[in-house]
Amino acid sequence: MSTQENKTKVLFICLGNICRSAAAEGIFKKYAEDAGMLDQFEIDSAGMISAHEGEKADRRMRKHSEMRGYVLESISRPFDKDVDFDSADYIVAMDGSNILDLKSRARDEADLKKIHRMTDFVVEYDYDTVPDPYTGGPDGFEMVLDILEDSCKGLLDKLKK
């Protein structure tokens, strides 16, 4: 557990931080709030690249998320290994490429132990990755939200224990 105000810091990671990790951050915040636990967490997201730094979440992801009652307020930022490995308790990545990139940036075993795959927390679905919907259509965004809702429920349940 992070020492900052005894909050558990959860950092969601995807490639550009405008679709999957931004949505995961918004969904997890809503679930934590609904459970009366929001004050127990520091929830953030970042991307493995800086191409979208300073941008809001993708408008399509915001639209699909809002239809489900989630507000995506994050602003894209790149992962900073020195800051993020030191401050995060859980670094939750969306796919195998993100996992490999994070592991290659890990400084030691302690950093490696913080890295998790989002789908490690699925309860209902049987997915091993959260696919990037960026170049696809509406169905891709909906499927990503389905996987993220399931995974965020599982993650919150794990952290409650």
What does this structure look like?
It is a single chain. The protein is α/β, with parallel strands linked by helices. The chain has one domain (4-160): Rossmann fold. It is built from six helices and four strands; from the N terminus they run βαβααβααβα. The chain has a four-stranded parallel β-sheet, with helices on both faces. Strand 1 (8-14), helix 1 (20-34) and strand 2 (41-47) form a beta-alpha-beta unit. The longest helix has 23 residues, at 138-160. The mean pLDDT is 96. It comes from Halosquirtibacter laminarini. This is Low molecular weight phosphotyrosine protein phosphatase.
- Tell me what the CATH architecture is: 3-Layer(aba) Sandwich
CATH topology: Rossmann fold
Which secondary-structure class do the elements indicate?
alpha/beta
How much strand?
A: 5-15%
Measure the end-to-end span: 13 Å
CATH superfamily: Response regulator
User: What is the residue-mean pLDDT, rounded to a whole number?
Assistant: 96
Strand line-up of the largest beta sheet? 2-1-3-4
Write down the domain tally.
1
Shape: globular
Radius of gyration: 14 Å
The total count of helices amounts to 6
Tell me the name of the CATH class: Alpha Beta
> Secondary-structure element sequence?
EHEHHEHHEH
* Count of individual beta strands: 4
Organism: Halosquirtibacter laminarini
Protein name: Low molecular weight phosphotyrosine protein phosphatase
